[in-house]
Amino acid sequence: REVEGDLVLGDIGYGMPFRAGSFDGAISISALQWLCQADKSYHNPVKRLYKFFSTLYGCLARGARAVFQFYPETPHQVDMITQQAMKAGFTGGLVVDYPNSTRAK
Known about the structure:
GO terms for molecular function: rRNA (guanine) methyltransferase activity. One of its GO terms (biological process) is rRNA (guanine-N7)-methylation. The chain is of the alpha+beta class and 105 residues long. It has one domain: Vaccinia Virus protein VP39 (Rossmann fold). Helix content is 30%, strand content 16%.
């Protein structure tokens, strides 16, 4: 079978469906802020964020790095995201681009 890659379609709020240690790194662009929304009555943003971060942390190899770029609507969302990431085992920092901008963040 000749393939260039496989595609996985899923909701990251249900977790990442990969074996432990499968990846050397991860990049997320503009995805995390959507986990902060409860667009269905049974969606709990805190639980969905933790499920994502804990399963992603598990499928990363030891010493792997992850980068998350997101657009929070409120400071509460920043806190919620960082708290759940740290609870899942991630460490690191937060870089705020244009913190004094009057445009929506």
